[in-house]
Amino acid sequence: MDHTVRAGVEEIIERELPNLPGWCTVEKGKRMAELASGASLCVELGVFGGRGLVSMALALADQGFGRADGIDPFTPGAALEGTNAPANAEWWGHLDYEAVARVAQEELYKLKIVPHAHLVRMRSLDVVEFYDNGTVDVLHQDSNHSEEVSCAEVEAWAPKIKPDGFWIFDDTDWQSTKRAQDMLLWLGFDEIEDHVHWKVYRKQHA
Questions:
Q1: Per DSSP, which regions of 9-127 are E strands?
Q2: 110: Cβ–Cβ under 8 A, 6 or more apart, which residues?
Q3: Residue 181's closest CA among 193, 192, 164, 169?
Q4: Domain ranges in the chain?
Q5: What is the CATH architecture assignment of 7-203?
Q6: Distance CA 158, CA 103 (A)
Q7: CB atoms within 10 A of CB 108
């Protein structure tokens, strides 16, 4: 994969991301676009306001091929699975999920990247069976951060990644994601970038 993006893509990321709900920074969005450049299939687990999905889909739209699937049921039940800190559970328990999902979908239409970006309103563990092993070029894990869910996602989705494919892991400074990060290493991924709050892993050849 090429891993370079045109200045125009970066300019859109700089302009659009700060206006969307979520925590993906402009710097991270640009790096996600770079990693998605040249990809045929990208997957995001946990979309929220669409910052990560938009970043990857912009790179795919710019190159003229490829698809980014943003998987997120946008429900409190999915957000609160597993063991969560009380403050975290309180915040996610009172969120207007439909409003956030609407913002994300409207952004895809606004930027005219719908042919390269799709919202999948399902739990990540319910939809994984529809993806063949070794088909995903880039995966961004940014859904429920409980240890139970993050570990289950690593176990279920790791086989779907192509050799030399990328796994972008969000909130790697959270204690609840540490075990899932260790699992990635056990399952044949190398940590290649550490940005403190997020990391990039690359899948080894079999």
A1: 41-45, 67-71, 117-120
A2: none
A3: 169
A4: 7-203
A5: 3-Layer(aba) Sandwich (3.40)
A6: 30
A7: 21
One-letter identity of residue 181: Q
**CB of 35 within 8 A of CB of 44?**
no
User: Which 8-state DSSP code applies to residue 159?
Assistant: G
User: Which stretch of DSSP H or E encloses residue 30?
Assistant: helix 26-36
- 101 alpha carbon, distance to own chain's centre: 15
Write the pLDDT tens digit of every residue in 59-109.
999 999 999 999 999 999 999 999 988 888 899 999 999 999 999 999 999
User: 3-state class of 200 per DSSP?
Assistant: strand
DSSP state of 42: E
> 167: how many CB neighbours lie within 10 A of its CB?
25
- pLDDT tens per residue, range 11-48: 999 999 999 999 999 999 999 999 999 999 999 999 99
- Asked whether 201 and 192 are in contact (CB, 8 A), the reply is yes
Please give the helix or strand (H or E) that residue 63 lies within, else none. Answer: helix 51-63
**Which phi and psi (to 5°) does residue 198 adopt?**
-155, 155
Closest by CA position to 49, among listed 22, 88, 76: 22
Decide if 55 contacts 44 (C-beta within 8 A): no
